[in-house]
Amino acid sequence: MKLTSIEKETIINFNEAERTASIYTHNEALKRQLLELCQTHPEQVCQTAANGWGGLTFELPKKWLKVSPPRKPTPAQLEVLARMTQKRLGR
Questions:
Q1: Range of the domain at 2
Q2: Total domain count for the chain?
Q3: 12, 25 Cβ separation under 8 angstroms
Q4: Whole-angstrom Cα distance, residue 60 to residue 77?
Q5: pLDDT at 88
Q6: Cβ atoms of 23 and 30 closer than 8 Å
Q7: How far apart, in whole angstroms, are the C-alpha atoms of residue 36 and residue 40?
Q8: Is residue 12 within a helix (H) or strand (E), and if so which, with residue range?
Q9: DSSP 8-state code for residue 81
Q10: Residue 44 in this model has a pLDDT that exceeds 80
Q11: pTM to 2 decimals?
């Protein structure tokens, strides 16, 4: 049985009492990133479960979690980007 896209969810869970967060995910890019962190930071990040359907669960410090809005470039930055694009296109 294959899971649908809507069934392939990511769940981030933490509470106020503990210092760690749990991330359950089917997202391939996030799984790769977390598996790499397991290798580079084994004392802080570990895989705790695999559900057999492609979902993996990880535990990591909750202070590593961050929600950030997309950056909005300033008019000066937009001007520099426009010049770089024109230069690349040979104009």
A1: 1-66
A2: 1
A3: no
A4: 35
A5: 84
A6: yes
A7: 6
A8: strand 10-13
A9: H
A10: yes
A11: 0.77
Q: Token pair of 35, please?
A: 């598996």
Q: What angle do CA 42, 45, 51 make, to 5 degrees?
A: 115
Collect all residues with Cβ–Cβ distance below 8 Å to 22 and sequence separation of at least 6: 11, 12, 13, 14, 48, 57, 58, 59
| Spatial contact of 47 and 37, defined as CB atoms under 8 Å apart | no
Tell me: pLDDT of 77 over 80: yes
- The mean pLDDT value for 50-55 works out to 93
Residue 74 within a domain: no
Residue 32 lies in a domain: yes
Residue range 2-17: average pLDDT?
Answer: 95
∠ Cα 72 78 80 (to 5°): 135
**85 located within any domain:** no
Average confidence score pLDDT of the chain: 94
